[in-house]
Design a protein that fits this description.
The protein has 194 residues and is mainly β. Strand 1 and strand 2 form a beta hairpin. The N terminus is likely disordered.
């Protein structure tokens, strides 16, 4: 691998981590930019976030070697103009995404169990006004028998939000996506439990 290729791949992963799209996240954006979180019997009420999930409650299912569920998130561009998004590679038809905690336990560890390994030099994609993008997002983690400290069951559940790598402008290299404010690229809150 050429040194510049490694640098590009590393910078996308570093960008993803900086924007909150990495494998684990201990905090979300400041609450003053997020929609208010209202709980009814521990379940988040649906809000007017620009990204909407197909449910507000998900259950992790035990599969061989992992706990897993899937969240379907839909972003509809109602801005009046195009919205750009960071892509992982030239075949990507949707934005890089992440999942992070929200609400009262937003500072606790959350283990997503996936990480982006992207190539550099990929131009941002575009969602035209009125168009939607639908993304199926894996939530949970594979078993982590060698993780130190050990993965705890509570590290996989809680109140969460999906966030997408939506950019302020088109750029020739997704590594340089300047993210929109959190309130413009996050989903409604949802609960993940066993």
């Amino acid at each position: 691998m050429r040194p510049d290729t490694f640098a590009r791949k590393f910078s996308v992963v570093a960008l993803a981590a900086a924007l909150g799209f990495g494998c684990s996240e201990t905090a979300t954006a400041p609450t003053d930019v997020l929609p208010a979180l209202v709980l009814e019997d521990g379940v988040p009420a649906r809000d007017a976030s620009p990204i909407q999930t197909d449910s507000t409650v998900y259950r992790l299912v035990r599969l061989p070697g992992e706990y897993r569920t899937y969240v379907t998130a839909t972003y509809r561009n109602t801005t009046g103009g195009p919205v750009h998004y960071a892509r992982c590679d030239s075949r990507s038809t949707g934005p890089i995404f992440g999942v992070g905690r929200t609400g009262p336990d937003s500072t606790r560890l959350y283990m997503q169990g996936i990480a982006w390994g992207c190539v550099g030099g990929v131009p941002t994609g575009t969602i035209a006004n009125g168009e939607s993008v639908i993304i199926r997002i894996p939530v949970g983690s594979g078993d982590q028998p060698n993780m130190l400290p050990a993965l705890k069951p509570e590290d996989l559940i809680g109140l969460l939000r999906v966030n997408l790598a939506l950019c302020k402008a088109r750029v020739a290299d997704s590594d340089y996506c300047e993210a929109l404010p959190a309130s413009q690229r996050q989903s409604n809150a949802f609960l993940v439990k066993y």
